[in-house]
Amino acid sequence: MKITLVRSGSLVAVMLAALLAGCYSLKTLQSAAEHGDAQAQNRLGNAYFDGRGVHQDYTEAARYFRMAAEQGLAEAQYNLGYAYVKGNGVPQNYAEALKWVRLAAEQGNTDAQYNLGYACEKGLGVQPNALEAYQWFNLAAAKGDARSIEHRDALTSRMSPEQVAAAQKLSTEFVPKKSSAVGK
Length: 184
Hints:
This protein is mainly alpha-helical. The protein has a domain at 109-174. It is 66% helix and 0% strand. The radius of gyration is 19 Å and the shape is elongated.
């Protein structure tokens, strides 16, 4: 095991170094999560969600996802939104799901951008909006997401040239937001 020196000396920083090196135990991960490390919280949420190293528990998964999501971690925001879509560990709630997925999409999370585009296209939890759907598909497509390319291209065939131009403008004007803590 490679030992990594951490300048700050804080418990969380040492545990994060171990996590990043891939040499962590469940106990170390839980300790880091309980000490407020958002990455550890999200990883622990994933472990509970998938039942990796722990008994599968969607409620615990959602609890850890929420901890990290409220700190502004885009991946955790997406994961919490997914839990709300499926009703895994939380009541199924599309409005709450979209709140979290949108926060992740606005930070540039590709999966969140695709899913937000899909929700806007199909009217899942929001009024259908082809321009917004195109924008999110186009942003994810620019990163090579095949699903987004397919949906964007299909959507284009149902839009006027003016609508496509307006949607492309939305895409080019998009600036990802920086991570920010979210209140309860």
